[in-house]
């Protein structure tokens, strides 16, 4: 298990001066409700683009502008959070990974968990613009349409991270359904215990010895699942960035109640 990918509020409180904290909530939440002291704001809608490099990625030039405006360097140790159980923050971190950022972490339990125990502020964080360098990732989990289609005929576990009703309407042939929110404890807002996670995943045949292929609609929800699987030590996790948006556009096969 790689416990360092997901960090606790306690860990962040002890190491806040050593990391770059990124809040991906809307600006009005960051400014009006408050944020972790020293955090910079990179709202979720700023790093999403249907006209990006791959699927929903924002494009290298736009990503560079965002990082430089936020004062983030390519070698900074990032800790990201939102107030939605980490799903938007995870999308930020996977985007950073795909643009070559190598030190990234998700705050377990999101802003609400932090706010229960630690101070927040509405004061603006002073930011000195940086010079950010997009790099090739050391290894990329991205897979394309053809790779996913070929995986349908292998022993790979195709995982649909959407809600059950979405899955029932239409899903990739042979895919198992795992709503990403099943991995989260509603009360603590953080991840379920490792034992609970491993049992839940094993019940769906999602085990670390198998190749896992993740998809949803637009690659947001699979970002959270990807981070969780990496946290648990899974090594063969494919990330289908195009997800069902591209799959449907390209006429990929589907199974489900609304599939003719």
Automatic annotation (TrEMBL):
SUPFAM superfamilies in the cross-refs: Rhodanese/Cell cycle control phosphatase (SSF52821)
Pfam families (alphabetical): Rhodanese (PF00581)
Rhodanese domain sequence ranges: 15-123, 152-256
PROSITE patterns to which the protein is assigned, alphabetical: RHODANESE_1, RHODANESE_3
Record key words, sorted: Repeat, Transferase
Molecular-function annotations in GO: thiosulfate-cyanide sulfurtransferase activity
Protein name: Sulfurtransferase
